[in-house]
């Protein structure tokens, strides 16, 4: 299909004027097509277009039961599970690296945020997935605390920006002083706490964070009874799935918030600078988790209740692919692609380029957080070593091998690169050599990736002509 919209227009109709001549009168006229009457309900056409989604999720139930049976085996079922995680990560990163044209190496950082902020409330507040209201209260309290912290930081940044009126280098100096002050404040407070001493009064940041902790505890304490009452009115068969959905959405929103905070300043960079910034962001997240006592520190979280199964996992895969596909080939997706093709030209016609890039970044971070939540709630323990740079590079290779801009290419590459190392396990001594050599050969043979910027044809495109002829519809 040609990328030009003019190539997709129908040919001009035959002229019916007398000056058209005999040739115009003898040509067979195409049958007239009339647009169907507008639907009484505007959302009915959207429901019809997505009617296959519930059917696909229902069909996952017998398929998942077969994969988890003894016929397939636990080892093969584990590979199928890893494919599901990788597909969500690759498709969500495709929205950032392929559709918007950025280069992010920090996707695993958003996965870590989603994993830990789903595992911690599931272990602490979910009561074995029987108390969804308590989990929702946790995310609301966390949102209040983070919102206050963000407002304070935003005010300080705006105040530092006022120094530009005096000298243009003063905002950078003020920001550097602010970072040093924060680091020294936290370090001195931690040393005093470990020694059993009182935190010095000049440690403003530490006292402020302590106040936010008290506010979080107060919200939890005052809302616990109401949350328990709400959860008590839910049937036991509904409480578990509702709690799990709240955990997935909450973890995804936390990762999206992290993506917004990181993306807003970082996406003003381009190319290698953006890659370095996102890589640093992922390392900051990992090291922050390693030094967080509530999140288990370097030892990680253990005793996480398990709820993820293949039905939930591949249901999220279907929804992720559908959402990214709809965004990519919508009006918003075309705007994001315009920014990818030529950011200067897009800015010249009035497109807010930073806004479009941040939008793609936030959407991609959300689904990376969902993948992290699914991963954490399928494991009994998670550690920060699961979210290192190697994992980020692995996802970037999937996107690049599939073809930048191709959603189905990202899906195919995720499947291939998950199965390939396991298929080479019989030659364990040379597995990584063969694996790397195959990647090099593929990239030399197909530098644009497996699919390039193309997509696999849909069933309607494959069988539309046959289906139309069966219904008597004129092509």
Walk me through what this model shows:
By secondary structure, this protein is mostly helical. The chain contains 18 helices and two strands. The protein has helices spanning 21-26, 44-49, 52-67, 74-99, 107-124, 132-161, 170-194, 204-232, 236-266, 271-290, 310-328, 331-341, 343-348, 353-376, 389-402, 407-423, 431-445, 459-471; strands at 301-302, 381-382. The chain has a two-stranded antiparallel ribbon. The radius of gyration is 27 Å and the shape is globular. Mean pLDDT is 82; it is low at 1-10, 13-37 and 466-475.
Strand content: under 5%
Assign an overall shape. globular
Order of helices and strands: HHHHHHHHHHEHHHHEHHHH
**Strands in their spatial order, largest beta sheet:** 1-2
- Average of pLDDT: 82
Helix content: 55-70%
Number of strands: 2
Uncertain ranges:
1-10, 13-37, 466-475
- Measured between the Cα atoms of the first and last residue, the distance is 17 Å
Structural class: mainly alpha
Determine Rg (CA atoms, Å): 27 Å
Number of helices: 18
Q: Major sheet, described briefly?
A: 2 strands, antiparallel
